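Protocol step 4 of 5: obtain the predicted structure for the target chain.
Materials: sequence only (see below). No template structures provided, no constraints applied. The aim of this step is simply to have a reference model before the mutagenesis design in step 5. Sequence pasted as it appears in the construct record:
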Amino acid sequence: MFPVFTGIHNILGKTADDPDILRYITATPGFFTVWNLVLHQVYFGCCCLSHVSHAFPKLVPRLLVFVANVVRRNIFNSILVPSSMMTAVNFWGMKSISPAAVYSDMVSAFPQWINHSLHTFVVPISLAELFLRGSAGEAMDFGSRKGWMMINGYVTIYTASTAAHFLSTGTWVYPFYDSMNNWMKAGVPVFMYGSAGLYYFAAKRLGKIFWGKHGVMKQAAPLMAKLK
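Step 4 output (structure tokens):
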């Protein structure tokens, strides 16, 4: 993936200093897709650390394992699942309306499996993990109010980062901002808050379906009981 990213100007027949290329590369850290990818890396990294600690209990410090378990149980149902839904629906929805609004020409330079890995498969992977965690007896949800506050806090931080990107570079993260007036730009965060809440409660509903009426199919893990 990295060789394609660094040589994307050659694939598209453009120069390295082309304004569109520079804008895409500069904006990449601000893509919602990239933020969602980082969430997946953090969550599954914490899961891996937890499994390693069970196999080699003396190898991983107990405090590190405790922090990893707290992080993964906090971000999964509250942020990761809703964020994955937002990534897939918003990307493909915008692409169907205006491909150029989400750098469709740049994305076409990558193999299709990379595109789907970032924008499509994140949803079934998250839902599969939601089901597997529920069947394992881990109560991942902290309740509607706390989870709702966490996903909205995440959206707030992301919105602030897009504003900071504009102030520092003079360009917006996504091209669709270019054709908007100020009122429409102000409506983007409102839309994100609304869709984040919708996907959060959809994930919560799916969790109840997977885990049972009380949010867990078996007795919760001891650590989770202490956290509550």
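Step 4 remarks: Confidence is low (pLDDT under 50) at residues 214-228. The CA atoms of residues 177 and 184 lie 9 Å apart.
Proceed to step 5.
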